[in-house]
Design goal:
11-stranded mixed beta sheet, 10 helices, single chain, 5-stranded mixed beta sheet, alpha+beta, globular
Length: 374
């Protein structure tokens, strides 16, 4: 039975161009959607990173209209492959406050409510209005130090340097419809619905997709040095459904104005709804790209999670304990002009193992006579 991919595309997909990946019986394929028609690009370019770097984005072999879906036996993959997966943290004021709460609560959700109230009273309005790296930011920093309220999270929220970290290994992200993992030993965690910028090797943003930068609040709250353990676990990075490429009708301005809607439907009937409003980001997306480039080189390009405004405080089971995931949660992340990314929560321990790394990908392409087109 053909797979319905129309459900995860934006309503105006017939006016846009999209790039993605699919798993066929033979191996990964590069696919594109142009004005409502689905194409297979693999015979011309066998990696998404290569398609972007060489601008091999034009139509390939016709598969058919989007409404007919993909061929039998095909499934969607994350739309990125050889790109480095980077992320920016604490890019929204509310997110900054929540990180400070995690730190002061030492990862204990039960203590978070009282700390949240105290901290918002002292810095809530000030941090929302300050421009990172400005003289006003320096003055706010001095005032917070005086009050004994300074934090390393506030440093990256309003200081000159953004927090940029490596989210996940190359080829490890999961796509639309897959399971997303949280560590089995985490008791306080949440999704992070984000816009993901897709960049070529020179740092030019060619399009965007959606991402779930799963966060373990208990781990990172105990120590910022546990960031990698909190962020990088099997199946903990979801990206998709497709990359929407920039054109005359969809530009970086649309990204700056985007709203990202989040819905979590729990197996017990619980529902949480949230929103990430890109207009409230503290640092412009292109400034985040500039800081990600810094003194690095990305020969296969990179993607950059922009951070999130969403910080779940709605109680789930225990009063004032806030939100944490349960196995079976269905997480839906949607943005009107980018699409819908939907994943079901499991543990990283129980998620399907990640098996096709760089060597396996190269061997597969070599066996299909496609390695030179990578």
């Amino acid at each position: 039975m053909a797979i319905n991919i129309q459900e995860c595309l934006p309503a105006d997909h017939a006016n846009g161009r999209f790039l993605g990946r699919a798993q066929s019986p033979d191996g990964p394929c590069v696919i594109a959607i142009d004005r409502g028609v689905l194409y297979d690009l693999t015979s011309r370019v066998s990696s998404v990173s290569g398609a972007i770097a060489r601008r091999e984005l034009d139509s390939g072999t016709i598969i058919g209209p989007v409404e007919h879906g993909m061929p039998d036996g095909w499934s969607l993959l994350s739309p990125i492959d050889l790109q480095c997966i980077k992320a920016a943290g604490v890019t929204f004021a509310l997110s900054a406050i929540e990180r400070v709460i995690e730190e002061q609560a030492r990862g204990d959700a039960a203590k978070a409510a009282a700390i949240r109230s105290q901290l918002e009273d002292k810095v809530g309005s000030g941090i929302r209005s300050v421009v990172p790296g400005s003289e006003e930011a320096a003055q706010l920093k001095a005032a917070l130090i005086e009050e004994g309220m300074w934090s390393q999270y506030l440093e990256v929220a309003i200081g000159p340097d953004a927090e940029i970290f490596s989210k996940s290994p190359v080829l490890s992200s999961v796509g639309h419809g897959g399971h997303i993992g949280v560590r089995s030993d985490s008791s306080w965690n949440n999704p992070e619905p984000e816009v993901v910028l897709v960049c070529d090797p020179h740092g030019e943003v060619v399009g965007v997709t959606l991402g779930n930068d799963v966060n373990l609040r208990d781990f990172e709250g105990r120590s910022a040095l546990l960031l990698s353990k909190a962020k990088d676990n099997t199946a903990s990075c979801a990206v998709g459904p497709f990359i929407r490429l920039f054109d005359d009708d969809f530009t970086i301005e649309d990204v700056r104005k985007a709203n990202v809607e989040l819905t979590i439907d729990g197996p017990e009937g619980y529902r949480l709804v949230g929103r990430n409003v890109m207009a409230e980001i503290s640092r412009d997306p292109l400034e985040l790209v500039r800081q990600c480039l810094s003194e690095h080189h990305y020969p296969d390009g990179f993607v950059l999670f922009c951070g999130t405004l969403f910080a779940p405080t709605q109680d789930r089971d225990v009063p004032e304990a806030g939100f944490t995931h349960k196995i079976g949660d269905v997480v839906t992340i949607r943005s009107e002009r980018i699409g819908t990314l939907r994943n079901t929560v499991t543990t990283s321990r129980d998620a399907a193992p990640w098996e096709m790394g760089i060597a396996g990908f190269a061997r597969n392409l070599a066996g299909r006579g496609l390695i030179e087109k990578i």
